[in-house]
Write a structure and sequence with these properties.
about 250 residues, alpha/beta, Rossmann fold, six-stranded mixed sheet, four-stranded antiparallel sheet, about 30% helix
């Protein structure tokens, strides 16, 4: 059984009067509770794919379905985490997480409290975004995405704007959340180590038009050590796939 199924997706759009073939015959299935990372050259359609899955882009050929229900528009069965946290600066942490739900509702109050505990932000419920670090703000964004119990969490380079130390810390935090919540996750990243550290499978994409070049299962138990021989072997395998693209080694964080 698949939680998310992407079937023969093709995407063409116009840019400066030219047709751009962003995705070509893209097929992928995510199993329940699976963590999948997508990596590939800039402009290969990774973020476009996430927008299609999120229901933010309906102008494509093919089919995307969650639990065999075709996606045609945004829905609460999908959460989306962007590179920027996109919090409302005039709302507190708890109100940002609740969004359009009322904290006066006991059920909402409990879900917000549980989400705050899940992302380890107890004590910051009344804080405003300007009082938070970048990593803390992204934790709020993750809690906001999880509050409606999505089937799939979509992450578009969520830690790309953070410094290396905070990024590593947030990767560990996301892994803890995934273990606890068991939400199916689809991550787009340029960070090879991040993909290996988090994912059950890494999808390596070809340059435009975007399609799958290679699928690399990561058969390492958690917690994973970035300097282990097995981890380094996976890094070499991913790099070998990516380095077939011109200057790929200059485009990826290792």
């Amino acid at each position: 059984m698949s939680t998310l199924r992407i079937t023969d997706v093709n995407k063409v759009y116009q840019s400066d009067g030219k047709h751009v073939h962003a995705l070509s015959h893209f097929n992928l299935e995510l199993r329940p509770h699976e963590f999948v990372a997508i990596i590939g050259p800039s402009g290969c359609g990774k973020s476009t794919l996430l927008k299609i899955v999120a229901g933010l882009d309906s102008q494509y050929e093919g089919e995307v379905a969650i639990d065999d229900r075709k996606i045609s528009k945004p829905g609460i069965d999908r959460g989306f985490i962007f590179q920027e946290h996109r919090l409302m600066p005039w709302l507190t942490v708890e109100k940002n997480i609740a969004a359009d739900l009322s904290l006066r509702d006991p059920k909402v109050r409990k879900k917000v409290d549980d989400a705050i505990a899940l992302v380890k932000l107890q004590g910051f419920e009344k804080a405003f975004p300007k009082q938070l670090s970048g990593g803390m703000a992204q934790r709020v964004a993750i809690a906001r995405a999880l509050i409606r119990d999505p089937k799939v969490l979509l992450l578009d380079e969520p830690f790309g704007a953070l410094d290396a130390f905070t990024r590593n810390h947030m990767q560990e935090a996301l892994l803890d959340i995934w273990r606890t919540n068991r939400t199916t996750m689809l991550l787009v990243t340029h960070d090879i180590d991040e993909a290996i550290f988090l994912a059950d499978r890494i999808i390596v994409m070809k340059a435009r038009p975007g399609e799958i070049k290679e699928i690399i299962p990561i058969e390492l138990s958690h917690p994973r050590t970035r300097v282990s021989s097995s981890f380094l072997e996976y890094r070499k395998q991913v790099l070998q796939a990516l380095n077939e693209f011109d200057h790929a080694e200059q485009s990826y964080s290792i």
